[in-house]
Amino acid sequence: MLSKTIGMKTRSAARQKTRIYGTVKYYHQQAKGRVVDLSATGMALDLGGPFHAANGSPVKIESEELGILEGTVKWCHRGRLGIQFRPNSNAAAQVSSCFRFFHKEIRPVIAR
Fold first, then answer.
1. Long-range pairs for 92-96 at CB < 8 Å and ≥24 separation?
2. Which of the pair, 13 or 72, is modelled with greater confidence?
3. What is the residue-wise DSSP string for 54-70?
4. CB of 62 within 8 A of CB of 68?
5. Buried b / exposed e along 45-69 (16+ C-beta atoms within 10 A)
6. Which residue has the higher pLDDT, 66 or 112?
7. Helix (H, G, I), strand (E, B), or coil: what is residue 39?
8. For residues 72 and 54, is the Cβ–Cβ distance under 8 A?
9. SS3 string of 43-55?
10. 73-97: per-residue pLDDT in tens?
């Protein structure tokens, strides 16, 4: 309950650490990255290059393991991008399927 008293937002879905690779696209730019954090409602990507999209920008993420996902940029900080999946997309089903059939939870090797 401490998070509510100091004004912090709580997350709505459990997250799992991953090492899934993909490409995030915004209009005519794209950047390859690694999905380091994944839930049914969103993901965090470690980007391999520059990517300029403001908070609220619509993006597409393409990955062999996850397929094509659509979302919105929620934050961008030090080469990492936070994306919230579009609620009317089939992202939750795609993420669930990935966890069920392919994914083994990854423990971090080095903390940031």
1. 92/40, 92/41, 94/66, 94/67, 94/69, 95/38, 95/39, 95/40, 95/66, 96/40
2. 72
3. -TT-EEEEEETTTEEEE
4. yes
5. bebeeebebeeeeebebebebbbeb
6. 66
7. coil
8. no
9. EEEEECCCCCCCC
10. 999 988 999 999 887 667 666 666 6
How do residues 24-38 score in pLDDT, each as one tens digit?
A: 999 999 999 999 988
60 pLDDT above the threshold of 60: yes
Residue with tokens 């929620």: 74
For residue 81 the two structure tokens come to 């991008």
* DSSP secondary structure letter of residue 26: E
Tell me the average pLDDT of the chain: 78
Locus of tokens 């659509």: 70
**Beta-bridge mates of residue 33:** 22, 47
Reply yes or no on whether the pLDDT at 54 is more than 90: yes
Indicate left, alpha or beta for 83 from its phi (over 0: left) and psi (-120 to 50: alpha).
beta
Give the 3-state secondary structure of residue 92: helix
Question: Does residue 72 contact residue 57 with C-beta atoms inside 8 Å?
Answer: yes
